[in-house]
Specification:
The chain is an all-alpha fold. It is built from ten helices and no strands. 73% of the residues lie in helices and 0% in strands.
């Protein structure tokens, strides 16, 4: 006896239900990504480790459920990069040992992604830079890796502001006789600022503007350029008046 299939109307209803469920799941992930990004932005403005941890948990959970979501892995890695920065604060030294290896491994995975490869290489360069800052004896091995990553990014995406922010930080800690120093670093920070101001704020990845401003302000201060410091301070106040790290630039 021949078995009859489901009526067309039933198949249609099931298809609608399936599509609705998939869309609901997609919207849930999208909303979680937005929430995680907002938390990460707030965490940087307040420089709050607890907020970074909450944001990281969101992205880590998303990636655990779907390891093809490279953007979630990217933001997990970005937050780990911030933890590495924080490891230079008294009492937070443990963060370096906790997050360095996972951050480096994840940055390498993101670097291989077709869409996010450039951003992965930038964050990877920043992670390597934190390693040098922790131990300058590692510079001869790691410094060329950083330059290679950043040069590749400049070649493929010359208008990415984050590559110049990382280059600026690298040059600031490089002796002048080796092509570094405050003046050289400042050219990169200012280029990053200009490109950030042109960047679409709705892009999936758009961090780095405040970081470039902060380092530019500190570099102007090193050079004794108070007008430059004040100009940077005004810019920061216009976009993030509650930026906790701006206190180092606050006019006396």
């Amino acid at each position: 006896m021949e078995r009859k299939g489901l009526p067309a109307s039933t198949i249609l209803i099931l298809a609608v239900i399936l599509i609705s469920n998939l869309l609901a799941q997609s919207n849930t992930v999208k909303n979680s990504m937005v929430a995680g990004k907002i938390l990460a932005e707030e965490a940087y403005i307040k420089y709050d480790k607890g907020l970074f941890e909450k944001s990281r948990k969101i992205f880590e959970t998303i990636y655990a459920k779907n390891n093809s979501n490279m953007l979630a892995l990217y933001y997990t890695t970005y937050i780990d990069f911030r933890f590495l920065e924080m490891s230079f604060q008294p009492g937070d030294e443990y963060l370096f040992d906790k997050y360095y290896e996972p951050a480096l491994k994840n940055s390498q995975l993101v670097s291989e992604d077709k869409k996010l490869g450039v951003e992965g290489k930038i964050i990877q360069a920043g992670i390597y830079m934190m390693n040098i800052a922790k131990d300058m004896s590692r510079a001869p091995v790691i410094y060329p890796k950083i330059l290679s990553l950043l040069e590749e990014v400049q070649k493929n995406k010359p208008n990415n502001p984050r590559v110049y922010m990382i280059l600026g930080r690298l040059k600031l800690n490089t002796p002048e006789v080796m092509g570094g120093g405050p003046k050289e670093a400042l050219t990169y920070f200012n280029k990053s600022i200009v490109l950030s101001e042109k960047q679409n704020k709705k892009d999936n990845i758009n961090w780095g503007y405040l970081t470039a401003l902060l380092w530019a302000g500190q570099t102007y201060d090193m050079l004794g350029d108070r007008a430059g410091v004040d100009r940077i301070y005004d810019k920061i106040m216009s976009v993030a008046p509650n930026f906790s790290q701006v206190k180092c630039l606050r006019p006396q």
